[in-house]
Every structure is written in C-alpha cells, then in structure tokens.
Amino acid sequence: MYQRTKKDRGFTLIEVLLALMIFATLSVAANQIFRNVINSNIQTEEVGNALKSLQRTLLIMDSDFRQMLARQYRNGGDEAKETLLEFGDDFLDSESQGIRFVRGGWINPQQLFPRGEVVKVGYRIQDETLERIRWMYPDDSSAAEPASMPLMEGVTGIRFEVQGSDGWKKDWDTPLEMPKAIRVVMETERYGELTRVYLLPGQTIAPPVVNTP
C-alpha cells in the first residue's frame, strides 16, 4: 500500500485559516494606510486652498486700505457728505460691520476702460463670507448697481477702529478729514482673530470758500 510522506502532504485546515488571517490583517492594515494617505492629501489640499484664499484676501485689502483718498463722494445721486469714511454696524447690509471709502491707484492702462483711476469700494459680511463691493464711479447714481465679489469664507465678524488726534475711536464723523490709521479686525473660523493696521496720510480737504457780497 502507498504510504504518504511529508512531501506529499498538503496544508492542514489550521494552516490555511492562519494564512487567511494573516492576509486579512495585512489587507486591513494596507487599506488603513491608504485611507490615511487619502485623508492627509485632502486635508493638505483644504489647508492649501484656505491659505491661498487668505493671502488673496489680504492682498486685495492691503491694496484698498493703503490707497485711501480724502475725497468726497456721492451715494445714489445724493449730495456729497462731508464724512470721507463710513463704517458701522449693519452698514451695507453687513451681518457684522461694514465700511465704504474711496481709493486711488485703480490701474487703467492707457485709459482703455471708460473710467478713471479712483474707485469707491466697500467691505461687508454676508453668510459668513467676506465680500468686497465696488462701484464703477465714486459718484454713482441710484441706477448703478455695485459689483460684489466674495473674498473669503468662514469670516464670522469684522470691525473697524480709526486713530484720530485723540487716540483710537470706534466711529468717525470728523468732516473733510481722514484718520491717521485704521485697524481692521476679522474673526475667522479657521485662524481665529486676525488684525491688520494700516497707516494713512491723515489727509484733509479744505472747506469750500463761500463768496460774500
């Protein structure tokens, strides 16, 4: 009768189950590593996109706030106010504070566009998104709708303070004069509280001369 030797023997059930268990353990570990790599890539992309959005927002804000002008302007065809800088709670339908002012340096290469280099801009928060508002002309009519551009999501609040001759103030009503500096504080979900301080030339406008007979 044929006798089976050790070489002729196959795997036992226990050996097969053990091999399957080892293979399953390695598969689970490999799958977990793969999922961690994917999640890491997603988080890295989210952080990168958020950082790009922040950098773009600060770049636009820096360009606007550093080029503020002491210039009167009309809103909706009304008479020009003596206040050169407007801001406050619920201003421009903002969920927090809003602000509006005139800036220069709006590049118009070779005067190709039907506008000047002075523009009226504003900032507000809508649906926890910081928006920049731009009017085509500093003295707009009631028929002219401003253009709104979302800048950064996750902004829960914004407030402004200005520096006058008597220190920092939370409002500004000095006629025909710009403050010496403005502080912008943004409250964000990702970065917490961000503060930017812009020094201004403190320009003033001479009051109109009234001719008396």
Automatic annotation (TrEMBL):
<keyword id="KW-0812">Transmembrane</keyword>
<keyword id="KW-1133">Transmembrane helix</keyword>
<dbReference type="GO" id="GO:0005886">
    <property type="term" value="C:plasma membrane"/>
</dbReference>
<dbReference type="InterPro" id="IPR051621">
    <property type="entry name" value="T2SS_protein_J"/>
</dbReference>
<keyword id="KW-0488">Methylation</keyword>
<dbReference type="Pfam" id="PF07963">
    <property type="entry name" value="N_methyl"/>
</dbReference>
<dbReference type="GO" id="GO:0015628">
    <property type="term" value="P:protein secretion by the type II secretion system"/>
</dbReference>
<keyword id="KW-0997">Cell inner membrane</keyword>
<dbReference type="GO" id="GO:0015627">
    <property type="term" value="C:type II protein secretion system complex"/>
</dbReference>
<keyword id="KW-0472">Membrane</keyword>
<keyword id="KW-1003">Cell membrane</keyword>
<protein>
    <recommendedName>
        <fullName>Type II secretion system protein J</fullName>
    </recommendedName>
</protein>
<dbReference type="InterPro" id="IPR045584">
    <property type="entry name" value="Pilin-like"/>
</dbReference>
<dbReference type="InterPro" id="IPR012902">
    <property type="entry name" value="N_methyl_site"/>
</dbReference>
<dbReference type="InterPro" id="IPR010055">
    <property type="entry name" value="T2SS_protein-GspJ"/>
</dbReference>
<dbReference type="Pfam" id="PF11612">
    <property type="entry name" value="T2SSJ"/>
</dbReference>
<feature type="transmembrane region" description="Helical">
    <location>
        <begin position="12"/>
        <end position="34"/>
    </location>
</feature>
<comment type="similarity">
    <text>Belongs to the GSP J family.</text>
</comment>
